[in-house]
Amino acid sequence: MNQDNKLHGTTTVGLVCKDCIILAADKRASMGNLIAHKKAEKVLPITDRIVMTIAGGVGDAQILVKYLRSEMKSYELQEKKKPTVKACASLLSHILFNGKGYWPFYVQLIVAGCDGKGCALYSLDAGGGLLPDDYISTGSGSPLAYGYLESSYEKDMDLKSGVKLAVKALSSAINRDVFTGDGVLVYVIDKKGYRKLSEDQVKEMTK
């Protein structure tokens, strides 16, 4: 994630585990070759059960998060039920697609969450492309993270194994990608909602 709206900073990771979703991201925000911020929040809740990771232009990502939060809250109030993960991801896909010819959003995003149908993970590109997957990485360090995910991911991983894999995949990017760094942020989403893991919890799970 960087301040000049170019798609060359950040690494985020999402993976489906047995009963939950793990989302992780580094904390570095870059502006060209400058480290602009060392505590950037790149994993952002949309509802109590849907969370999004952001890579790309800060302003673009922030306005999309605000819009999605508003739309999902409006849906819940009008329909008297919680929106599904797929509905949230589909709405975001339409927004990105409709903007690409006039005012494109320079972002790569992961939308994930758990609802009555189970847990789901989606990647979205700047043109509105929407793809579900078992594991996803975005940002400049994603080729490095994918190398680790491809070789180590297994279906029905438990929580601890999922956190350990996500952190190791991010660490591989931090070690080699100059636009990725300054620590790791980890969220867990299950049917009860989302929770942010503390640094001590992450350390304990990755021993």
Overview of the molecule:
The chain is an alpha+beta fold and 207 residues long. It has a single domain, classed as Glutamine Phosphoribosylpyrophosphate, subunit 1, domain 1 (4-Layer Sandwich), CATH 3.60.20. The protein contains 5 helices and 12 strands. The protein has helices spanning 58-79, 85-99, 142-152, 159-176, 199-205, and strands at 11-16, 21-26, 29-31, 34-37, 43-45, 50-56, 107-115, 118-124, 130-132, 135-139, 184-190, 193-196. Strands 10-1-2-11-12 form a 5-stranded antiparallel sheet, covered by helices on one side. A hairpin with a 5-residue loop joins strand 8 and strand 9. Helix 3 (142-152) runs antiparallel to helix 4. The chain is globular. The two termini are 28 Å apart. Residues 1-8 have low confidence and may be disordered.
CATH architecture: 4-Layer Sandwich
Please write the CATH class name: Alpha Beta
Strand order of the largest sheet: 10-1-2-11-12
Mean pLDDT: 90
E-strand count: 12
**Range of strand content:** 25-35%
Number of helical stretches of at least 4 residues: 5
CATH superfamily: Aminohydrolase, N-terminal nucleophile (Ntn) domain
Distance between the termini: 28 Å
Report low-confidence residues grouped into runs of 5 or more. Answer: 1-8
Q: Give the biggest beta sheet.
A: 5 strands, antiparallel
Indicate the CATH topology: Glutamine Phosphoribosylpyrophosphate, subunit 1, domain 1
- The tally of structural domains comes to 1
Going by helix content, strand content and strand pairing, the class is alpha+beta
Radius of gyration: 16 Å
**N to C succession of SSEs:** EEEEEEHHEEEEHHEEH
**Quick one: overall form?**
globular
